[in-house]
Amino acid sequence: MAAALRSPITGRPLVADTPHSLAAPGERWPVVDGIPYLRIESEGLVAVALDHLDAGCPDDALVALLTDQDAWWTGPATDLSELKHLVRERDTLSLREAMALLRMGPVADYFAYRWVDPTYLAGLALIEAHWTAPATAFELACGIGHYLRDLSRAGVACVGGDVVFAKCWLAKHWVAPAADYVVFDASAPWPIADRRFDLVLCNDAFYFLPDQLTIAQRLRAALVPDGVLAVSHLHNADYHGGSKGPARGWAEWAALFPDAAVYDERALLGALLDAREPQAQGWRADPDVEAWSIVEPATPTRALTGGLTLPAADTVLRPNPLIGDASGEEHVSWPSPRWRDEYGTGCFWAKRDDELIYPADPVRLRRLVDLPERW
């Protein structure tokens, strides 16, 4: 990425010492496919990648970095022969084929069908409701770039950060190629510490990050003076259905985001489907709320008539890949029981028309979907 970065260890400025590496006194980091890899405590992998790059073998460096994973990952390890096949055929494989070769398991289902899951759509609604026509945006825990794709196509210059190189690489090649990416640990000093953005976001990820107070402060510090912070899907520990991930009670979340506009995620989804302005509810005990979403500061809202939540008029749409037709739930092919249990209740596209409480607009419902070309 062209903008200046800082060392995640010392905070010193990093400069390009070769076309494929960044350096500061006493340290050096690889840049593979234009993505700086700045994870701390990964010295062995950093050294392997640099050795391959210095030897003129960038594809071998790429294979090495594609083996890296989250610290919490308990799924299968990658297979080097599959990764080499992925790297060789990266210009022809689909996104789903690429994720299969990366052995991403249930995470692949999450990413492949995120375009139709209610949590993703509520996040879009949150950003659009508080839209300020940002020129720049940064997303922490960007995954494979779903939101960066929408923002980039709205003319926003984007930077995505994630701890897993493979996710940023998938984003760059299959989902949001216009964005820049950097791989780093959220709990370490941020390499983008010198950058400021009009919009900073963290979607469906903040709840599992470590040291959330520090990270919330860093997200705010990345904003320009009039910037907007959007954080979606904060699990409610008191939800009567049981939380589907790490959670806090409303008072703990309120202590982290005391001045935010607070939304029940379902209210955001309903406003999107009904093309109206979402209503903030404020922090309060409510066992019916599964997850909250917040914006700081509590700026004026707008009706969700289009923008991020709807594709451009000339977009080529495809049928939702999880439904054969719109006649009923029996025709839904859920990616897995786990996916159905987590998202099924909010998937209005899966309901019969006579069950809908919102107008049956096939685009708003996501019966028709704007998928990447090589989905």
Q: In a nutshell, what does this entry contain?
A:
The chain is of the alpha/beta class and 375 residues long. 30% of the residues lie in helices and 18% in strands.
Describe this structure in words.
- Helix 6 crosses helix 11.
- The protein is α/β, with parallel strands linked by helices and 375 residues long.
- It has three domains: 77 residues, no CATH class; 183 residues, Vaccinia Virus protein VP39 (Rossmann fold, 3-Layer(aba) Sandwich), CATH 3.40.50; 52 residues, no CATH class.
- It has 13 helices and 14 strands.
- It has a seven-stranded mixed beta sheet.
- The two termini are 25 Å apart.
- The radius of gyration is 21 Å and the shape is globular.
Give unreliable regions as ranges: none
CATH fold-level topology of the largest domain: Rossmann fold
Largest sheet: 7 strands, mixed
The CATH superfamily of the largest domain appears as Vaccinia Virus protein VP39
Structural class: alpha/beta
Euclidean distance between termini CA atoms: 25 Å
Order of helices and strands: EEEEEHHHHHHEHEHEEHEHEHEEHHE
Number of helices: 13
How many discrete structural domains?
A: 3
Strand content: 15-25%
CATH class placement of the largest domain: Alpha Beta
The number of strands is 14
- Fraction of helical residues: 25-40%
> Order of strands across the biggest sheet?
8-7-6-9-10-12-11
Q: Please state the second-level CATH architecture of the largest domain.
A: 3-Layer(aba) Sandwich
Name the average pLDDT: 94
Q: What sort of overall outline do the alpha carbons produce when their principal axes are compared?
A: globular
Radius of gyration: 21 Å
